[in-house]
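Tutorial handout. Part one gives the primary structure; part two gives the three-dimensional structure as tokens.
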Amino acid sequence: QVQLVESGGGLVQPGGCLSLSCVVSGSIFRIHFIGWYRQAPGKQRELVAGITSSGGTNYADSAKGRFTISRDNDKNTVYLQMNSLKLEDTAVYYCYTSIGSTNYWGQGAQVTVSA
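Part two.
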């Protein structure tokens, strides 16, 4: 059974930085894509950043220039480095992947940006 376990998150002041990680475990032959989503209260869940097995990345406009996604294939871990954080970055962050028709989500990590 595939599991995604997140760590990181917490409280940070505006302009600060925070890192998230997500470890994928289970019987996995290959995961082509894994990404980070976030959901703020009263808002739709949105894709923040994604990365392929070869290292190709894409970012939401709100994340470009501030966030960096990376992965370590040997450790089955994906990271999200968040810099220059803003109040509007406050949300629960989820890592995500899909295998066939099955979706897999992390348990969520709360990121709160507050002055």
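Part three, for discussion. The chain has a mean pLDDT of 93. DSSP finds no helices and eleven strands in the chain.
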